[in-house]
Known about the structure:
Elements: E1 2-8, H1 12-25, E2 29-42, H2 48-57, E3 72-76, H3 85-96, E4 102-115, H4 121-124
Antiparallel strand pairs: 1-2, 2-4, 3-4
Amino acid sequence: MLRLRGGSALSKFRLEKLTSTIQAELPQVSHIYAEYWHFCVLVRELQPSELAALKQLLIYGPVQQTIEPIGELLLVLPRPGTISPWSTKATDISHHCGLQSVERIERGIAYYTQATEKLSVETKQQ
C-alpha cells in the first residue's frame, strides 16, 4: 500500500477552535495539527510518471502551507471494510486519468497532538 501525505486538513480557524475545545477537557494538550493522508492500493508498482500523475491528482483544496508535523499521531480513517464516497470518486478520477494500476484510494486525517504529558489509551479512544 502506498501512503502519500496531503495538505492541511483544517483551516487555521478550525484548528484553533478544535484546540480550544479539546483543551477544555484536556488542558495538557498545547497544540494540534491535522493533515490528509492518502492510502493507495495498487495492482503493481507505479512507474515514475504514474506516481507523479497520482501525486498531482492528490493536490486539491485551498493552498495551505504544509508543515513538518511533530507530536503524537492520531490517525482517523473510515471504518474497515467500508468504502467512502470520497474514495469512490477519487478512484474513478484516477482511472479516467489513465492510472489503471490504482485499485483504490482512501483518505484519512492524521492529527498530531502536542501535550505536556502523554495521553492515555482511554483518552485517545474517546
